[in-house]
Structures are given as C-alpha cells and as structure tokens.
Amino acid sequence: MQNYVRIAGTGSYLPEKILTNFDLEKMVETSDEWIRTRTGIAQRHIAAKDEATSDMGAVAATNALEMAGMTPEDIDLIIVATITPDVPFPNTGCYIQKKIGAKNATAFSVEAACSGFVFASDVAVSMLDGKRYKRALVVGAEKMSSIVDWEDRSTCVLFGDAAGAMILEAVENEEENSYIGAQLGTDGNFSDILYVPGGGSRMPLDEIALNEKLNCLRMSGQEVFKQAVNTMSRVSVDLLGQTGIDFDQVRWLVPHQANIRIINAIRKKLRLPEERCYVNVDRIGNSSAATIPVAIDEIVRNGDIQKGDLLLTVAFGGGLTWGSSILRWTKD
Ligand code: ACO
To answer: Under 8 Å CB-to-CB from 87, ≥6 apart: which residues?
Structure first.
C-alpha cells in the first residue's frame, strides 16, 4: 500500500526582544524610512545572548507536538534546517532531541540556507515514504543575529531570529495526504553572492579572520534580488505545471520572507492577488530557514486555513538553493 504524509501539527517561536528600525538608527547610519521602503521590514526579533538555535527550535517543536496531540517519544525522525547551528557538531537536531526528550528519534541537520525548510521537509517525506519512519519533526530555526555584521548597514537591517516546526506523519489514507509535491534546485556557480567566508575548513577563525569579520554574512544585494525573483517565480510555475494544479486552487502563496519587494515582484509575475500572499516580513524580517514554517504556523493559528486548502511555498537562498512545495491542510 502506498504511503502518504499528513501535516499533524505546526509550531513556532519568536524571541522576546524586538529590534525596531528606530533602534537600528542608533546603531548604523540608516533610517526607518530607508529600511521600510527598500525592504518592507519594520522590526525583527533578536534571540538572547544565551539563547541558541536549538533553544528556539525546541520551543517551536513543543508547540507543534501539542497541536499534533503527540508526545516527544512518538517522534522517530528529526530534521533541522539551519545555517546557524549551535556548534559545528553535534548537529542541532541532537540538541533539540535532548531538549524535548525525543529519545526514539534519529536526528540530523540540513544546510540549504533560506531554502532549508523546503529541503528538510522533502527529505522527511522521502524517509517517511520508505516505511522505516512514521513521524517526523521538521524544524527551521535560525539565530541570524549571530552571523550578521552589526556594523554593516547593507545587511544587518534585513535579518532576524526565529524558529518554526512541523510534524509530518506517514498515513495510508490518500484523503489525509498533505504533501502534493515539491521541486528543489541548486546552483553552486553563484556561491559567492550570498555566503559566510570564514568559520569552516576553508578559513578557520583565527584572530585575523575575526578582525576581518569573516564569520559574518556577505551579500551582493542587487544580484541576490534579481536571482531570487526570477528563480522563485520559475520554480513555483514549474511545480504547479508538474502537479497539474492551477493558481486559482492555491489558497496561500507562502514565500520566503526576505524583502517585500521580492515578494511583490513574485506575486505580480504569478498574477496572484495580494490577499492570497502571506506576508510577515514587516514584523519578523528575514529569519532564513525559519520564515516558511513560522508563516505556516501563523496562518494555522490565526484560523486562516480550512480543511482542503492548498499552500504553495517557495524559497530561495545562499548556495544558490531554491525550492517550492505544495501542501494541503487536511486537519479539521
Ligand atoms: N540604510 C541606508 N542606506 C543604505 C542602507 C541602509 N540600511 N543599506 C545600503 N544603503 C545605501 C547604499 O550604501 C547605497 O548608497 P549609495 O547610493 O550612496 O552607494 C544606497 O543605499 C543604495 O544601495 P543598494 O544596495 O543599491 O540598494 P538596493 O535598492 O539594492 O537595496 C537591498 C538593498 C535592500 C539589500 C536589496 O538589494 C535587496 O533586498 N536585495 C535582496 C537581498 C536579500 O533579501 N537578501 C536576503 C538573503 S537572500 C534571501 O533571503 C532571498
């Protein structure tokens, strides 16, 4: 019998501290007006100094488990999407496993930058399909504030910290199926338009590297902008074509929340009305792999989705990486 996968629960977490554009005005030469006009961002959440990615991921996971009506022991697979792991190893999934007490799970991380959650979900679905695993916890969690250069106004205004989670469960009944399809892609030729130069085997962090802030994110903003709009539009159209689903059938476009101008450009290319495109970048900023699961959790908890509704997710990030998925909400 064929296996299907249903979304059993979602959860999210935003750190308590809020950093507004006005706060940033006191840190770098910028203005609320510039940031709002160019990015649509008004504020972002910033994790506490002693709050790591797994701490945020564990809270989001606990919320998702609660919605699913499951205990941590029910989970047999944990996949975490992050580019800001607690430490180089053990993987952040192991820390989340320990924190929530998911002692029956196998945990690992996936590194695909802002597309990470779409990648991690697709990996989870493939593993659930093999019948060896029954219930997966997929987390997108990032402490972007830990890799941002707080003196670089061209990047520090864009990012925030957050975590989102989703429980995926293998089911046999097609009516419960939530995972309609996905498309992923990468292009390493553009690896230098969005990256962190140091901290890996290429450039371990010695004193010189730290002085040059090679542990911080670098970005060619305009090139990223162009690639993001073209790629995200293309991959969503391709996926809809591949699955035979029409735009009119999609209740929510859930785009990666990087910049309102990128989101609007994609929405216009796809000719999707504003009210069917989910936006929270104004409140949360760009939290990389966390943006999509946080957005989905907000939609669900706000009651803005009904049984049978389709969500079209689309993401783009450093790598380059990109991905799109079509999800169906099948809970009552
Ligand atoms: N405040 C004030 N001025 C600024 C700031 C700031 N925070 N940042 C840059 N500027 C200045 C620049 O120095 C430049 O000044 P100059 O003309 O005197 O040289 C001027 O503003 C224009 O700079 P540009 O880089 O051309 O501005 P642009 O309109 O391209 O906007 C931005 C920059 C917002 C980064 C844009 O390129 C963008 O959104 N790119 C996409 C990047 C992105 O979203 N990355 C996230 C990661 S990837 C992803 O998640 C998809």
So the answer is: none
